[in-house]
Amino acid sequence: GANWTYVTWGLYHALLFVPLILLGRTKAYTGVATWKQIPQIVLTFGLVTIGWVVFRATSIIDALNFMMSWGRHSLLSIPNLIGRWYYIPMSLSLIGLIVVEWYNRGNAEIETFSKIKSKFVRWCVYLSLIAIIAIYGFYESTQFIYFQF
Q1: I need a surface site. Which of 19, 37, 51, 56 has the fewest CB within 10 A?
Q2: Cα gap 32→138, rounded to integer Å
Q3: Which residues contact 1 (CB under 8 A, 6 or more apart)?
């Protein structure tokens, strides 16, 4: 059966969506974000991230303990989880993904890279993505997430 964290995750997202539905604020935004929308985007990302912590935790207590640990560290410190050399390419990759996402804002098509006119540049992008996956990919065997329920 489903874990209580899954049920809590669903209720949490319902609590986030119901006010928007009742207020009629469910339209999709397209184009470049306004200064007013940027804090809304950051807030949405933060709230959804909290929901995913609850979803992936083994128990609700574990999720709460994990979230409580967020305040124990400085926001400016960089944790040495894998090695500090790991964060530079990962940060650059994250910036690249944000740029691609921003470029496609409001566009449901996944043909972003095919729009690059230069064949050389397009293949450089493809090969860079393959290299990033090959270098930073997680190749250990893990249980499929939905088998955990």
Answers
A1: 19
A2: 34
A3: 149
